[in-house]
């Protein structure tokens, strides 16, 4: 890594931001391939914002994050599979938070709270073979309970877990990835992403993961023979999927043209709600580096941001905030790479989706 780039945090994960916890839960069943991931803020909540760029988003409570509106802090963000059905997972998280007395207080009794739980979903319906195997309130509760039980500074499982269980990226298996950096100011910026894109994460000319370009080290180029074999395998799978779709009279089988990449970028830097929204917007630049094309009509690409407000920005606020903005894009791009490398391929009734590591090894 070059001297100009900040080093990753100790875990290279979202949980390097002190107080942030992450929990995953999957939908049970042999023909299920979906799940939910919950990002749990520290007690007292976090300043939050969101930026939605895709043309087909599925979200909940995102209007509450507008800096012009009432809610100042939130306690959790839900990332979930199951398309719009999966947004029900947020109900389970909301119920758990109410039991803890966490949320916007709306009455004289401390238990009288309304938790605000923003959520975004991705399309993975039928990828395990059962169209109705999708997250619900019980999945959300399991994920938030896993987050709460994980303890501070816990490692975050990556790949085919949680909301990334049924994720697909351009024909490859997608999944969950996370990354972090520690800035010269002492602030930490980190990202967690669920990669489920219509676009591709790999350069079709070389097999290099797009997010590795400009990441500070020369990208690892797979051997030409390995890339040729991988390209043939992906082409065979695509033809088989198209033939099955034509036979069934459907638009696509197992994959489909409906996707969505969703992410959370968190920092311990003290940000206003407007600054948090700016961070959400610039973080999308990292997504655009790592997935091509991105933000399409059938994507619902959404980035949430959280500020735990524990690290005041230095006196030169503009320069310090610019560093946070740049880091948000960098860590999100690198998290996409880690998601692709950590994913495990699947081959079942919902379709065949090989992983990057299966096709290219550890290159």
Summarize the SSE layout with pairings.
Elements lengths: L20 E6 L8 E6 L6 E6 L6 E2 L15 E5 L8 H11 L4 E2 L7 E2 L4 E3 L15 H13 L18 E2 L2 E2 L1 E8 L5 E8 L28 H25 L13 E8 L3 H18 L11 E10 L5 H26 L3 E3 L2 E3 L2 H5 L3
Parallel strand pairs: 5-8, 13-14
Antiparallel strand pairs: 1-2, 2-5, 3-14, 4-8, 6-7, 9-10, 11-12, 12-13, 15-16
Characterization of the model:
The structure is a single chain. With about 375 residues, the chain is of the alpha+beta class. It has 6 helices and 16 strands. It has helices at about 90-100, 135-150, 225-250, 275-290, 315-340, 355-360; strands at about 20-25, 35-40, 45-50, 60, 75-80, 105, 115, 120, 170, 170-175, 175-180, 190-195, 260-270, 300-310, 345-350, 350-355. The strands form 5 sheets. Strands 1-2-5-8-4 form a 5-stranded mixed sheet, covered by helices on one side. A hairpin with a 7-residue loop joins strand 6 (about 105) and strand 7. Helix 1 packs across helix 2. It is globular. The relative contact order is 0.21.
| H and E string | EEEEEHEEEHEEEEHEHEHEEH
Overall average residue pLDDT: 92
Number of helices: 6
Helix/sheet category = alpha+beta
**Major sheet: arrangement of strands:** 1-2-5-8-4
**Range of strand content:** 15-25%
Largest sheet: 5 strands, mixed
Unreliable sequence segments: none
Number of DSSP strands? 16
